[in-house]
Amino acid sequence: GENVEQHPSTLSVQEGDSAVIKCTYSDSASNYFPWYKQELGKRPQLIIDIRSNVGEKKDQRIAVTLNKTAKHFSLHITETQPEDSAVYFCAASRDNYQLIWGAGTKLIIKP
Amino acid sequence: DTGVSQDPRHKITKRGQNVTFRCDPISEHNRLYWYRQTLGQGPEFLTYFQNEAQLEKSRLLSDRFSAERPKGSFSTLEIQRTEQGDSAMYLCASSLRQATYNEQFFGPGTRLTVL
């Protein structure tokens, strides 16, 4: 079945620097790739998503890139701020309902 | 609050007892999902409903687990004869099938501890 691998498991960056989180997926039929942010003790919240018909999408300081050939996609956060500290999850779906999730990346923003 | 709600937020039970959780989705959402999340892991898909029909069940959902959505609105997840391995956060999410994007909105979760 579908498998999503996410790296790194922990990422520590200086405030103001950029952070990049990478995911790979196994099912070439996957066509929807959301990224969720989960703060400690809170629910996951969608921050950005991309469909397989585009290669990049940006929303202010956040961007996602998709390489269908290599079956990987990445989250880029620029000008990181303390409130960006959280666990970030990537996910993939082929059927518009069942999301297969990565294991998460704990992002730490150092002041 | 018009978001997804779950009840209870915390449940502590003894091994062997039955527990039931409730999820109230966003009112116009016709899809409802249940996930299980353990510490340090991403959510694992358990099952999903479109209106009142349960359309998919993960192999993770043993016969001790049952979910219902009788009127296509709220849903319940029951775990019978709980085991310590059932301890986890149980998340509910909902989405709108007609939406261009399948954004799933999550509830706050029910944290289950089996002693």
List keywords for this structure.
heterodimer, A: 111 residues, mainly beta, 6-stranded mixed sheet, 5-stranded antiparallel sheet, 11 strands, B: 115 residues, 7-stranded mixed sheet, 4-stranded antiparallel sheet, 0% helix
Describe what you observe in this structure:
The complex is a heterodimer of chains A (111) and B (115). Helices cover 0% and strands 55% of the residues of chain A. Chain A has 111 residues and is mainly β. In chain A, strands 2, 4, 5, 9, 10 and 11 form a 6-stranded mixed beta sheet that branches. A 5-stranded antiparallel beta sheet of chain A has the order 1-3-8-7-6, with no helix packed on it. Chain A is globular. The termini of chain B are far apart. Chain B has strands spanning 5-7, 10-13, 19-24, 31-37, 44-50, 53-57, 65-68, 75-79, 88-95, 105-106, 110-114. The model of chain B has no long low-confidence stretch (mean pLDDT 91). Chain B is mostly beta strands and 115 residues long. In chain B, 0% of the residues lie in helices and 49% in strands. Chain B contains no helices and 11 strands. Chain A binds chain B through residues 6, 32, 34, 42-46, 49, 51, 89, 91, 93, 96-104, and chain B through 4, 31, 33, 40-45, 48, 55-56, 91, 95, 101-109.
